[in-house]
Amino acid sequence: MLSKKPKNVILVGSGKGGVGKTFLACMTALALARKHPEELVALLDLDVEGPNVLSMIGIERLSRFIQEPLLECKTVDGSLKWLPFVQQNHDNLEVFSIKPYLDFALSGNGSALDRGKVWRELDIRQAVEHLFGSRGSAVAWSRPPVYYVMDTPPGVGVVMKSVLDSARARMLPKLRMMVVSTPKKPSIDKCRPFLGTLASVREIEVVGVVANMVIEAGRPAAPVRKMAEDYGHKFLGSIPETLEIERALDRGEIPMDYAGVVDVVL
User: Fold this and answer.
1) Which of 91-95, 117-121, 122-126, 183-187 has the lowest mean pLDDT?
2) What secondary structure letter does DSSP report for 249?
3) In terms of DSSP bridges, do strands 175-181 and 204-214 run parallel, antiparallel, or are they unpaired?
4) Domain limits of the chain?
5) 29 vs 147: CA distance, rounded Å
6) How many Å apart are CA 180 and CA 26, to the nearest integer?
7) Of residues 194 and 129, which shows the higher confidence score?
8) For the chain, how big is the Rg over CA atoms in Å?
């Protein structure tokens, strides 16, 4: 049983994939770890179809043979628990991903077939319950996390609903969400109905909207700012699309030059 309720659960979401949710989630987790060095920050990658938190944040414990994270386990109080990955520069930031958990832990064998499997809704719900549910965590966090940061799949689907169910069961206060979008029309068109749906979800407080991949000369942040204002949310700021950021992400580094956009959740 998780003995302590987290102080803050932060979701990073969007109506569209490929807009920088993972980047924003990693930056948020690092900013929290830096600001609260005595408290544990748990970063959960819940994107079943496109999980890349582990590579983006520089986790090195990967298999040379299958190029996927190696899960290690230990017995805690008679139960088998899976060890989280520890961010090398911050020992109070621990990371876990739902995809290798489904592939290696829940399946029981981690075969190549399972790693390419499309998981059923029931499997995904069970995995979220194991990682975040009221009956305890299948992850051997070094201590109860004070902060959770969750990178979620696009839209309001089975993962989001499972997180909400677990939060209700744990009687947690409102979950806080940052929504991210690029200024491009396809992203705006997907994020507007996403924000509309969130308006009816009482358990989630949208703390603001971030514009990512902004090129001031060609794609100013104005469309994202207007969308935020139209739905009554705060515009948190913009992150430019630069070669320096791309190179840093390719190296498994998270540039923190624009971390001010996440101050609202710190």
Assistant:
1) 117-121
2) H
3) parallel
4) 8-265
5) 9
6) 13
7) 194
8) 18
Rounded percentage of the chain residues whose pLDDT exceeds 70: 85
Query: Helix, strand, coil proportions of the chain in percent (round to 5)?
Result: 35, 25, 40
Q: What is the mean pLDDT of residues 32-36?
A: 94
Inter-residue contact 183 to 27 (CB < 8 Å)? no
The continuous run of DSSP H or E covering 132 comes out as helix 121-132
Residue type, 237: G
Tell me what percent of the residues of the chain surpass a pLDDT of 90: 46
Q: What are the structure tokens assigned to 187, written together?
A: 């992203």
Q: Is there a contact between 22 and 47 (Cβ–Cβ < 8 Å)?
A: yes
**Calpha distance 59→253 (Å, rounded):** 10
Q: What is the CATH number of domain 8-265?
A: 3.40.50.300
pLDDT above 70: residue 191: yes
H helix count then E strand count, the chain:
9, 10
